[in-house]
Amino acid sequence: MAELSTLARPYAKAAFAHAQEASDLSGWSAALVTAAAVSQNEKVGELLDNPQLTSEVRAEKFLSVCGDYDASMQNFIKLLAENHRLPLLPEISELFEDLKAQAEATLEVEVISARPLSDEQSQRLTQALSKKFAREVHLHSAVDESLLGGAIIRAGDTVIDGTVRGRLAKLAEAMNS
């Protein structure tokens, strides 16, 4: 995975720089999400792996599936096809979204709890995380009934394990040290 990220990063940065300069972050974001979904389709994967097709033909066929893109996005897809990087689109899209979130000072946070969070709990948690990370937080919650209690919070690279199982594991580790 780190290899894919390394290969995709320069393309994501270039796409982000262009989108930011054109003041079209949301447009590029939507286009990259669509292109990433198309690239993961099984039939499109066969097309991308076909050695008999030139990069120009691959790009044209890929663009015909994706829909109506502006000239700059078409050029980006053609560049990816020319460099045999169309399969990297899911990773490029993900890295682009990370750069977009940093620029917009937002953070996507996933909370997995044993029981559904009340509106008050969600608000308090959003406020606390906004203060901690100094960003606007978009909270997404899910329920995992296998948890005994507490919650797991994932915010970017940060994971906070506040579950009962996690706390017991920390206690056991401290006692064995």
UniProtKB/TrEMBL annotation:
Keywords: ATP synthesis, Cell membrane, CF(1), Hydrogen ion transport, Ion transport, Membrane, Transport. The keyword Cell inner membrane does not apply. One of its GO terms (molecular function) is proton-transporting ATP synthase activity, rotational mechanism. It is found in: Cell membrane; Membrane. SUPFAM superfamilies: N-terminal domain of the delta subunit of the F1F0-ATP synthase. It comes from the Bacteria. Its main location: membrane. PROSITE patterns: ATPASE_DELTA. GO terms for cellular component: plasma membrane; proton-transporting ATP synthase complex. It is a peripheral membrane protein. Pfam families: OSCP. Belongs to the ATPase delta chain family. This protein is part of the stalk that links CF(0) to CF(1). It either transmits conformational changes from CF(0) to CF(1) or is implicated in proton conduction. This is ATP synthase subunit delta. It comes from Microbulbifer agarilyticus. The lineage of its organism: Bacteria, Pseudomonadati, Pseudomonadota, Gammaproteobacteria, Cellvibrionales.
